[in-house]
Write a structure and sequence with these properties.
Immunoglobulin-like, mainly beta, 5-stranded mixed beta sheet, 4-stranded mixed beta sheet, elongated, 9 strands
Length: about 150
């Protein structure tokens, strides 16, 4: 008599998970990530830091940004296959918002005036952009940058 063996779906599930993880890792890495290790994607050419303006983008997440009272901090998140939202300040309110954050094509842009000295943080979240009827990974990317505001000279 011949016995039948149950076939486990686990290898197929693991293979699909590996492919999906690899694809979304490349999306999250952003443009230019195929280059040298540690290479940062190019910043939005529309924003370049000056004496009065400090530009912050996705590549600054997890880092510290130093500004002086009176400088403007401009946050630009977008162009990464993610839908960005909920940009807000955490901790002491040292930054004064220059209007509501602007949402466009999945990106978010906001400007803040450094009003008082101290330490605070800016935080936003990004979720994958998915087409209706297509498989979509379920994750949320938390972006946060520490902002250290120093007294003006």
């Amino acid at each position: 008599m011949r016995r039948s063996r149950a076939v486990s779906p686990l290898p197929s599930v693991v293979a699909i998970w590996l492919v999906a993880t690899t694809v979304w890792a490349s999306v999250l890495a952003g443009p230019g990530a195929a280059g040298a290790a540690g290479a940062r994607p190019a910043s939005d050419p529309a924003c370049s830091s000056t004496r009065h303006l400090v530009c912050v983008d996705r590549a600054d997440g997890g880092h510290r940004v130093d500004v002086r009272v009176g400088q403007t901090v401009r946050v630009e998140l977008g162009g990464s296959g993610l839908e960005w939202n909920d940009l807000h300040e955490l901790g002491p309110r040292l930054l004064r918002s220059d209007g509501a954050p602007r949402l466009r094509a999945g990106g978010i842009t906001a400007s803040y005036l450094a009003a008082r000295a101290g330490r605070t943080a800016l935080q936003a979240s990004g979720a994958p952009k998915c087409s209706p009827g297509q498989a979509c990974p379920q994750f949320l990317l938390l972006w946060r940058v520490q902002v250290v505001v120093q007294s003006a000279r």
